[in-house]
Design goal:
mainly beta, 15-stranded antiparallel β-sheet
């Protein structure tokens, strides 16, 4: 078999394997997912499918998750899917793109709960905080400068359910082409002020910084949990 024939055969096998993969039932992928990720009532294929809910650490982070492969992306040498979901009745969307230069997220406009994110920091678990997160970004890709905005609305604590919302906040994120970046936390409203800043590195999966929580009025049911953090002026500080 001459070289052109071998190349043609190899290309045909790659294309055949690709279409077998994307047309395979998505349930075949489930056993390979990290244990912390669960989905309910999943159906369809990697090409196009849906799930009633997506969970992280036994908490639902998305409902009515849907995905669809975009064949036109093949002409650009990439594999791209359009994803959509709902959380608390609000629609979210993003485009996931894979290529030789890496993973890329485009047109990110996504809603999810705050609880699974704070669960990653043991020192905040005692505060039993929750709320709604809204993440937005035009493009997120290592190798390109990127900006993102994350808003937290309706922060609450299970320790003081009668208190109602404690505040609303915004995190501004700036990432450099090398994957390093800075973040800054600002308070928008509420009786629990929060300020902070820090840095991160996507390639090393590391983040560091300081966050200061300052009650503007006494919150008796929350004070014992806040006092487990480091005192800082009129507030309490968390360093990581």
């Amino acid at each position: 078999m001459n070289k052109p024939s071998r190349r043609s055969l190899f290309a045909a096998l790659v294309i055949f394997a690709f279409f077998c993969l994307v047309r395979a039932p998505v349930s075949l992928v489930s056993p390979f997912l990290p244990r912390q990720i669960q989905w309910q009532h999943v159906q369809g294929t990697l090409w196009q499918g849906q799930a009633a809910a997506l969970g992280l650490g036994n908490q639902i982070v998305a409902e009515r998750l849907e995905w669809a492969f975009l064949p036109a992306s093949l002409a650009k040498g990439r594999l791209e899917w359009q994803l959509a979901s709902r959380f608390a009745g609000k629609p979210g969307k993003l485009a996931l793109s894979l290529g030789l230069e890496g993973v890329m997220l485009k047109d990110l406009d996504w809603f999810l709960p705050l609880e699974p994110l704070l669960a990653q920091e043991p020192r905040l678990q005692g505060l039993r905080l929750g709320g709604e997160v809204h993440a937005q970004a035009a493009l997120l890709k290592v190798g390109s400068k990127a900006d993102a905005r994350i808003e937290v609305d309706g922060l609450f604590s299970g320790l003081v359910p009668q208190q109602g919302p404690l505040g609303s906040y915004r995190v501004d994120v700036e990432m450099q082409p090398d994957g390093s970046g800075q973040w800054k936390l600002l308070s928008l409203a509420g009786i629990l002020q929060a300020e902070g800043r820090g840095s991160f590195d996507v390639n090393q999966a590391k983040a560091s910084g300081q966050v200061t929580l300052t009650p503007q009025t006494p919150i008796p049911g929350l004070s014992p949990a806040l006092s487990t953090l480091t005192p800082a002026g009129q507030g309490y500080q968390l360093s990581f």
